[in-house]
Amino acid sequence: MNKHSDNHIVPYRLYIQVLAGLIVMTILSVAITKINLDTLTVFAAILLASIKSALVLTFFMHLKFDNKLLQILVISVFVLVALVLFITFLDYNFR
Amino acid sequence: MSNLNAVSFREEQGRYKGIFAWIFSTDHKRIGLLYLYSIVSFFLIGVLLGAAMKLELLAPGKTVMDPATYNAIFTLHGVIMIFLVVVPGLPAVFGNFMLPIMIGAKDVAFPKLNLLSWWIYVFGAIIALSSLFMGGGPPDTGWTFYAPYAFKTNTNMLPAVLGAFILGFSSILTGINFIVTIHRLRAPGMTWFKMPLFPWTLYGTGWIQILATPIVGITLLMIVGERVLNIGFFDPALGGDPILYQHLFWIYSHPAVYIMILPAMGAISEIIPTFANKSIFGYKAIVISTLAIAFVGYFVWGHHMFTSGMSGTALYTFSLLTFIVAIPSAIKVFNWVGTLHKASIQLETPFFWAASFLFVFMIGGLSGLALGALATNVHLHDTAFVVAHFHFIVFGGVGFAFMGAIHYWFPKIWGRMYNTRIATSGWIIFFIGFCTLYLPMFFLGVTGMPRRYYDYVENFHGPNIVSTIGSWVLILGLVIILTNLIRSAYKGEKASKNPWGGRTLEWTVDSPPTLENFEEIPVIDRGPYDYRKNPE
Predict the structure, then answer these.
(1) Could you say which of A84, A91, A94 has the minimum Cβ distance to residue B298?
(2) Which of B167, B325, B374, B536 has minimal Cβ neighbours within 10 Å of its Cβ?
(3) For B121-140, what is the mean pLDDT?
(4) Are B242 and B235 in contact (CB under 8 A)?
(5) Hey, which CATH number is domain B20-508, 3.40.50.150, 3.90.1230.10, 1.10.3720.10, 1.20.210.10?
(6) Domain ranges across chain B
(7) How far apart, in whole angstroms, are the C-alpha atoms of residue A26 and residue B147?
(8) Inter-chain CB proximity A87 and B243 less than 8 Å
(9) Contacts within 8 Å (CB) and 24+ apart, B384-387
(10) B67 has pLDDT over 90
(11) Where are the domains of chain A?
(12) What are phi and psi of B416, to 5 degrees?
């Protein structure tokens, strides 16, 4: 059931591209604080942080090359957290 | 499978002797029993506190204690029963003992982590209960530690909160252990859909333990931060929001209800086919509804907060989701009843517990829907109706399933039979006591008696007397049950491998099992409840 991936060798170029993406998004998440997004401020910060963590999980933590079941489990956990946050904000944003 | 030289896990000589052979054992069966003895001890303390509360409510005004003591007692009753008894309850005791055997493994995936989780449990319990013996006395906030009162009371909040925080780690470690065990250690041939239903419910529970418990951990730390460092999270005076506390608390504590009830449902799903001598009806539907409850159960926490001042949008959403989560629970009940249809039922004690579970669980579940509806909730919120509802679910559901499970697996765990006539008498008395104790509370709640009050107006006197008498009957039943089980563990008739005719793997190993359960790991080629052909 669990062959735990066939030793994927990931080219350095890909790592550098991901790193560049992470740096750009870090700069973006600082820059975005200058714009007044009102109620979407928290949403924007969480969205950027989520994309960054997704990149880290997918490439640096090799989730992309892991077995399907683990991929589904990790994605489900993130969906769950997103839904919990979404529902919590149904209270705060509509009070 | 039997080996003449093999001794049971109880007689096995390990590295240590006496009590150390137990408290330092990494055998999943010994750890399960360590949990059992600890949990039953705390349960008895919780029962005595509950009985003291009922005694106070025997008559209006002061009966046996003052209001402050009453507040402390209902808080302690709640903290002990929730954090020390029902949350660990079935997974820690029967999950530890039975899971590896039921999936054909020799132990859990991380035996040392398993022992550590028991030690953390004991440590957390000591910290939580230490508040009793410190100046200031035990907390008086209720087990929910609601803000902002939790920051203002002069009682010993911090030990109770830290205790609950530490206990959370025990729960997380058990969850991790069970998930990995189920993923990695199933016997060859045991595909996911050949796995018995009790392990399935432990799997769903494991995920809730891992994903929900950290939230309450952080929340409890935030209370400490607010009390000690004056950081304004929840206290309006410091710029915090008390409703945020309720959100965070219930984001954990509602799924925690499913940590309690899912394994209970799993145990019932084991008992019913065995005593119906019939394959369970709708195996896959039960599995899917287990996972659906575990998933949807995350999104209904707001129904504890309908009168707290949430937005209208949140109110409608939570109410709708609450009604949705009732569906998979109802599917399970339908399947259990479907299994009993045209079955050749063995009327033994575990079956009586399972059948009465169905009865009380339905009352608890349906009264939950009355509370899940927004309009009726406003009327019933914080009344005795809520207390009756959750005791029907938590004590009726989990408690009855626990009792059913202990009577079902008793011959396997202790290798002896109990006196079934006494056990059944105990069940009848307990059941009558339970209904007499809690049914009047529905009536009291509807007519307006608030919960957590040590006093009441004369109109409520009659049902309160009935309820208090019910608590005495229940305790009588409990004494009979426990005396019978303890006596039988020492002096009962020797049990065979499979006294009830069960088909799951635990009934193929010795009673009590040997240290490594199986001499040879079995190869699975049939479903867990295959009653069509005789496997022997």
Answers:
(1) A84
(2) B536
(3) 87
(4) yes
(5) 1.20.210.10
(6) 20-508
(7) 36
(8) no
(9) B384/B441, B384/B442, B384/B444, B384/B445, B384/B449, B384/B450, B384/B451, B385/B441, B385/B442, B385/B444, B385/B445, B385/B446, B386/B445, B386/B451, B387/B441, B387/B445, B387/B451
(10) yes
(11) 12-92
(12) -135, 160
Contact B98, B28 (CB under 8 A): no
C-alpha dist (Å) from residue B268 to B29, B199, B264, B273? 21, 12, 6, 9
How far, in Å, CA of B374 to CA of B320, rounded? 10
Determine the residue of chain B that is closest to A70 in CA distance.
B183
How deeply is B523 buried, as exposed, middle or buried, from its count of CB atoms within 10 A (0-12, 13-18, 19+)?
Answer: exposed
Q: Residue B117 and residue B175: Cα distance in Å, rounded?
A: 10
Phi, psi of B8 (to 5 degrees): -70, 165
Does the reported pTM lie above 0.90? yes
ipTM for the predicted complex comes to: 0.85
Task: Report the C-alpha gap between B216 and B87 in whole angstroms.
Answer: 13
Q: What is the DSSP letter of B447?
A: T
**Measured between alpha carbons, how far apart are the two ends of chain B, in Å?**
12
Q: What is the pLDDT of residues B325-361, one digit of tens each?
A: 999 999 999 999 999 999 999 999 999 999 999 999 9
Shortest alpha-carbon distance between residue B313 and chain A (Å): 6
Taking phi over 0 as left and psi of -120 to 50 as alpha, with beta for the rest, B49 belongs to: alpha
